[in-house]
Hints:
Elements: H1 3-19, H2 21-28, H3 34-55, H4 66-87, H5 93-100, H6 103-115, H7 121-140, H8 147-174, H9 176-197, H10 208-236, H11 238-241, H12 248-260, H13 266-284
Helix pairs in contact: 1-10, 1-12, 2-5, 2-10, 2-12, 3-4, 3-9, 3-10, 4-8, 4-9, 5-12, 5-13, 6-8, 7-13, 8-9, 8-10, 9-10
Amino acid sequence: MDKAAGGWINGFIGMAIFSGSLPATRAAVMGFEPLFLTGARAAIAGLLGLALLAVARQRLPAAGDLVSLAIVAFGVVVGFPLLTALALQHVPAAHSVVFIGLLPLSTATFGVLRGGERPRPAFWLFSVLGSALVVAYAAAQGVAATPRGNLLMLAAVVVCGLGYADGARLSRRLGGWQVISWALVLSLPVMLPLALLTMPASFDAVGRGAWTGLAYVSLFSMLLGFVFWYRGLALGGIAAVGQLQLLQPFLGLALAAMLLGEAVSGTMLAVTLGVVACVAGARAFAR
């Protein structure tokens, strides 16, 4: 199997794993507070990442890589999980998945800011159109009723794009699974105490769905998904394999409907298609 094919296969697996993150987080926040959930998922994944690095006898990252690893940790280990957990207290998973359609655009934007790329004017046209669709959808659904949830989801997309861009750039040098493992280990001294300090006094009232959600986001969303995703970006190229994110809203909507019984309206599907089309157009004119 050549590198390009391996990149697409690994990228697709990673994207499919990420598609279950929001439905799983929605299930988990029904039994756990957002701060505990954020700390617990990062602590569990961090301990697993530490074990992987130890077993593989990986050398410590260079001092020059610590800033980028801290950005990855801030974006995908702390920022995105916490912001989405807070948002999903106010909006259903099917609603929040629409915002994920902006992730490729967010990643590309930070690629421009940090990578010095100069996209053509059409890129920004598609960017504005995609953002306008999301804002219009939120307003039509009653943004006054859930402004906090919508703003939290937008913030989550921004910090996640930052973490994706820096992580993808760093993975070319360190390797995909090493990047996320070191980012998790870097955040462990903060996230483990956070989990212990915010741990509920009793777990008796926590249902099976919440435990399943915690297990999924800890093992799959926080660690295994990034192993495949960053490996895919490293093998197949960031711009090419990154387009697989366009499929994520569709898989996420399907999972929310199947697993959580949430309604997926025709309007929601139409907006998702529109956002995906705008992001695809922006990607086409990124260079």
